[in-house]
Design goal:
The structure is a single chain. This protein is α/β, with parallel strands linked by helices. The protein has a six-stranded mixed sheet with strand order 1-3-2-4-6-5, sandwiched between helices. Helix 7 crosses helix 9 and helix 15 packs across helix 17. The radius of gyration is 27 Å and the shape is globular. The termini are far apart.
C-alpha cells in the first residue's frame, strides 16, 4: 500500500502530470459546453450562409410576417442530386460576395458538415471544437522542436486552457479555424527549418521535407481562404525563414507561391466583388478626433488585444474597457521584463523567435492601421487578430520556462489554474438562454396567435428568434426601427382585415410580446418617448401581464420583454 501511495505522490509531484491534466480539462470543457449557450448574433449568420440561403433572406417590412418563414432559411437544404448540390454551392458563394467580409472556406466546409450532422447548436460547433483539440496536439510539437518536451506540454496546456481560445473553440465562426491554420503552418515551417538545419539527407528526411512543404502550402492557402488578415501570418513566417534558414529561402518561397496560386481563383472572382460591396467605414477613424488621440487609440487597441487574448477572454464583453488596458499592461510589462532577462541570459535566439511569432504580427497590424487610418486591430474584442494567439502563448511559455528559476513549477501551475478558473466561471456563471426563455413562455399558450414586436431589423436578432421559437406555433413578427415602430404597430392593430396577416381563421391577435432590444445594432435604441407611445398604443386593447429582462454574455443579448394579452370586453 505504501508503494502505491509513493508512486501516486511521485506522479503528482511531476510538472508533466499537471500539464497533461490541464490539457485534459481543457478538452473536457470543450465537450461539455458545446451547446451550453445559445447562438450569439454572428453564429446564426454562419448558419444562414452555410446553408446557401442568404440570398433568399428578405429584411422585415412594416407589416407582420410569419416567423416560421425565417426558420425555413435556417434548415439544411434538401439536395438529392448533383444539380441540387451545385446550385446550393453557387447560392452560398453568391451570399458570401454580397456583404460578407470573409472568404468562403469556413462556410463551404460547414455546408457539407451540416448535411451530415444537422443544424443543432452542438452539431454546428463540434467541427471547430474538434479542430481546436487537434490544434492542442499539433502545438505540442511547436514547443517541443524549439525548447523540448516540457515546453511542448506547457504550450499545449496554455492553448487548451486559454480563455480567449476556449470561447472561440465553441463558436460557430471561423476564428477557431484561423488558429488551426496558424498552428499547422507554424509547426510545419518550424519542423522544416529544424530538419534543414540538421543537414539530414536520408531518404526519409527528404520525404519529410516534401510532406511538410505540402502541409505548409495547404495550411497557408487554407488560412487565406478562411480569413483575409491571415496574410499578416504570411509575412511573419517569411521573417522567421529569413532569420533561421535564409539560405533555403527558395523552398519556403515555393510553398508561399503555390499557396497564393490556390487562393487565386477566389481572389479574382470573389474578393473583387466583396471589396465592391464592403462596408469599410466601420473601421475608419473619426473625422473629429485629433491625430494625437487617434495614435493613442491605436496603442490602446494593442494593449487591449493582448489583455483580451492572454488574460480576460470572453469576459471582456461585460467588463469595462479599462480592465483590458490593465490586463494588457500587465502582459506588456511581463514581456519587457522577460525580454531583458532572456537577452542578458544569452537566450537571444529563442527570444527573437518568440518576438517574431507573437509580437511582430501585432506590430505589423498596428502600422497597417496607422497608415490606412483604420481600426481593425481590436475589432470584435481582438478576434480579428486571433492568429497572434499561438505565438503570444509561446512567448508566455518561454517566460515561464526561462525566467522563473526555482519558482518555475509554482508559476506554471498558478498560471494554468488562473486560466481554468476563468474558464469554469465563464461557462458556469454566464449563461445565454434568452430565446429559450421566450420560447418556453410562448409554448404555455400554444393556441394563442401571438405577435412579437421587435425594435430592430438586424438579421441576427430576427434569425435567432426564428431558430429558437418552434415553427409550429402561430407566431407573427413585426420588426421595425424604434422611430417607426409605433406607427407600424398602430396600422397593424387598426387593420380590420387581420386575416391578411395571420393567414388563418383568427380575427385578432390574442397576445402581443413587445421585445425591446437594448442594442438594435442597425438603428438607435428606443427612446423614452418612443417607449411611451408604444405602451399607450398597446394599453388601449391589451393588458400587460408580465415584464422580464433577458440578458446573455454581451450587449447584443440584452432584451426587455413585455407580455400583453388582449383585454376582456
Amino acid at each position: 500500500m505504501s508503494k502505491i501511495i509513493s508512486i501516486i505522490i511521485s506522479i503528482f509531484t511531476k510538472l508533466s502530470t499537471w500539464l497533461v491534466l490541464a490539457i485534459a480539462l481543457g478538452i473536457i470543457l470543450r465537450i461539455i459546453n458545446l451547446d451550453g449557450r445559445e447562438f450569439w448574433y454572428d453564429e446564426v449568420l454562419s448558419l444562414l450562409l452555410s446553408n446557401g440561403k442568404k440570398i433568399a433572406y428578405i429584411h422585415p417590412q412594416n407589416i407582420p410576417v410569419i416567423l416560421s418563414t425565417y426558420n425555413q432559411l435556417l434548415q439544411i437544404p434538401q439536395e438529392s442530386n448533383l444539380r441540387d448540390i451545385s446550385q446550393t454551392i453557387i447560392n452560398l458563394f453568391r451570399g458570401i460576395v454580397g456583404t460578407e467580409p470573409h472568404p468562403p472556406l469556413f462556410y463551404l466546409s460547414h455546408h457539407f458538415w451540416l448535411l451530415i450532422f444537422g443544424n443543432s447548436v452542438a452539431a454546428t460547433r463540434i467541427l471547430s471544437a474538434f479542430l481546436s483539440i487537434i490544434s492542442i496536439g499539433i502545438i505540442y510539437y511547436w514547443g517541443k522542436i524549439l525548447l523540448g518536451n516540457r515546453t511542448g506540454l506547457l504550450l499545449a496546456a496554455l492553448l487548451a486552457t486559454n480563455p480567449f481560445y476556449l470561447f472561440h473553440s465553441l463558436n460557430f465562426r471561423m476564428y477557431g479555424f484561423v488558429v488551426f491554420w496558424t498552428i499547422l503552418s507554424g509547426t510545419a515551417i518550424i519542423k522544416l527549418i529544424d530538419i534543414n538545419q540538421q543537414n539530414l539527407n536520408h531518404k526519409k528526411y527528404s520525404a519529410s521535407r516534401i510532406l511538410l512543404a505540402i502541409i505548409l502550402t495547404l495550411a497557408m492557402a487554407g488560412g487565406l481562404l478562411t480569413f483575409y488578415l491571415f496574410a499578416y501570418w504570411f509575412i511573419v513566417l517569411a521573417i522567421l525563414v529569413i532569420y533561421l534558414d535564409k539560405n533555403r529561402w527558395w523552398l519556403y518561397g515555393l510553398c508561399f507561391i503555390f499557396a497564393g496560386i490556390l487562393t487565386l481563383p477566389w481572389v479574382i472572382w470573389g474578393t473583387r466583388q466583396q471589396l465592391r460591396n464592403a462596408d469599410l467605414h466601420r473601421f475608419a477613424e473619426g473625422e473629429t478626433i485629433s491625430k494625437i488621440l487617434i495614435f493613442g487609440r491605436h496603442l490602446q487597441d494593442v494593449v487591449q488585444t493582448l489583455g483580451n487574448h492572454l488574460i480576460l477572454g470572453d469576459w471582456i464583453t461585460i467588463l469595462p474597457g479599462i480592465s483590458a488596458v490593465i490586463a494588457g499592461g500587465v502582459i506588456i510589462g511581463l514581456f519587457i521584463f522577460a525580454s531583458v532577462r532572456l537577452w542578458h541570459q544569452g537566450d537571444r535566439q529563442i527570444l527573437i523567435i518568440a518576438v517574431i511569432l507573437g509580437i511582430f504580427p501585432l506590430i505589423l497590424a498596428l502600422f497597417t492601421d496607422i497608415i490606412s487610418g483604420n481600426f481593425t486591430l481590436a475589432f470584435g474584442w481582438g478576434r480579428s487578430m486571433i492568429f497572434i494567439l499561438p505565438g503570444c502563448l509561446f512567448f508566455v511559455a518561454v517566460c515561464l520556462e526561462k525566467i522563473t528559476g526555482k519558482w518555475r513549477n509554482v508559476m506554471i501551475i498558478s498560471w494554468l489554474l488562473f486560466y481554468l478558473t476563468i474558464d469554469i466561471a465563464d461557462f458556469s456563471i454566464r449563461q445565454r438562454s434568452m430565446f429559450h426563455t421566450l420560447a418556453n413562455s410562448l409554448q404555455q399558450y400554444p393556441e394563442k396567435t401571438t405577435l412579437i414586436v421587435l425594435n430592430s431589423k438586424a438579421w441576427g436578432h430576427v434569425l435567432r428568434l426564428a431558430y429558437y421559437i418552434p415553427p409550429n406555433l402561430p407566431v407573427m413578427l413585426l420588426a421595425e426601427e424604434s422611430k417607426n415602430l409605433a406607427n407600424s404597430l398602430e396600422q397593424v392593430l387598426n387593420n380590420d382585415n387581420l386575416n391578411y396577416y395571420l393567414n388563418n381563421n383568427n380575427s385578432q391577435y390574442s397576445r402581443i410580446i413587445w421585445l425591446e432590444s437594448g442594442y438594435p445594432l442597425w438603428s438607435a435604441a428606443t427612446t423614452e418617448a418612443e417607449r411611451n407611445n408604444i405602451e399607450n398604443l398597446l394599453n388601449q386593447k391589451f393588458t400587460l401581464i408580465n415584464t422580464k429582462h433577458l440578458s446573455g454574455t454581451m450587449n447584443l443579448d440584452d432584451f426587455m420583454v413585455k407580455d400583453y394579452i388582449i383585454s376582456e370586453k
